[in-house]
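Per reviewer request, we include the raw input and output of the structure prediction for the construct analysed in the revised manuscript.
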Amino acid sequence: MTMRIGHGFDLHRFSDDPSRLLVLGGVTIAGHRGLVGHSDADAICHALCDALLSAAQLGDLGTHFPDTDPKWSGVASTLLLQEVVALVHGEGWSIANGAITVLAETPKMKPHSTEMQERLSAIVGAPISISATTMERLGPIGEGLCLAAEAVALLEKDLA
């Protein structure tokens, strides 16, 4: 059996548009400013997509879903994740698991992490864990200007 690990990272700033929804891990979080981006700007999904693509050596999110393509404007990032999973499976890889760390002062992830994990695990077909940390009010994340997510993913391929 061959295994590969991939890493992904994404960062988005918070929008000044009060009508912009905040979507993280495929879950809409009420009462918080949304993130700026070409799609729904779901940094958790984006980081996971990049980790999966990295492990399968398939480039990155921008290669497959460029922000210059109007087709992807406003799209739900869970759809991008479904596309990435199909690409990874198309190369003969199985997804073993993924782990995501969210770096944010706000919103707090704990009230939403179980729903996010369930939603992402269902899309990926493997366990996905989500943890979070703050930046102790340091830098742009700590000042509440943006949030970031890091992800790792493990792929397996049976060569027999």
